[in-house]
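My main concern about presentation is that the manuscript never shows what a single data entry looks like. In essence, backbone conformation is discretised, so a fold becomes a row of integers matching the chain in length. An entry of this sort, consisting of the sequence and the corresponding backbone structure tokens, reads as follows:
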Amino acid sequence: MYAFTLERPSTVQEAAALAAGGTKVLAGGQTMLASMKLRLSQPGAVADLSGIKELVGIKREGNAIVIGAMTRHLDVANSAEVKAAIPGLADLAAHIGDKQVRAMGTLGGSVANSDPAACYPSAVLALGATIHTNKRKIAADDFFVGMFTTALDEGELITAISFPIPKRSVYMKFNQPASRFALVGVYVAQTDSGVRVAVTGAGQCVFRHAGLEAALNQSFTVASAAAVKIDASELNADIHATAAYRANLISVQTQRAVAKLLG
């Protein structure tokens, strides 16, 4: 690891000022610290956000659950508020990585990183969440741009994410055994505006599947999901799985999600 300066801001304003000046912000550090240890990343200065109390917490506001950006995966998984309102989100958080990752990783860090196989982005997109930053609010459909790329401006910080409470939702994940990232993960949500299906692990970043959404909005059945042909032409292919295999997993995991929601 290269030498660097560590800053410990106590407010969002202090952190934003540091970030605007080129300081890299540290949330849970599950990606950043690993890349620094391998000397793949060399930030000259790092701002640790863990001391900013206003970025932590879970609360219900109207028909939404609002979660602070620095809230740990473990706290989302164990939250009675989240379990009651969006059990699919609590279950997703409970199966991210291992115990150590869940104890350190944060909601905001995961979403801002936009890892192609991260779990949280699928919930953000499927539930039609709103990402709150120190500058504005960004709709989930506008947030994820590509691999490790989001709509965040340089120095812009996520402060919280607001999740509308769905009628029902569930996340089905097929693990990559070593990393426990999603080889393919599918989040299915029945919302007031219809069914939304978000897929992670299969593309350059999380994405909604229009074909599955159209079919399930017409008929919310396992058979309806199974009848949708999944195009593999733009899906990921690597040492873990071919694009065709990932396409099949999208179909299978969606069918399992629908079956679980139907009881």
Observations:
- The first strand starts at residue 5 and ends at 7.
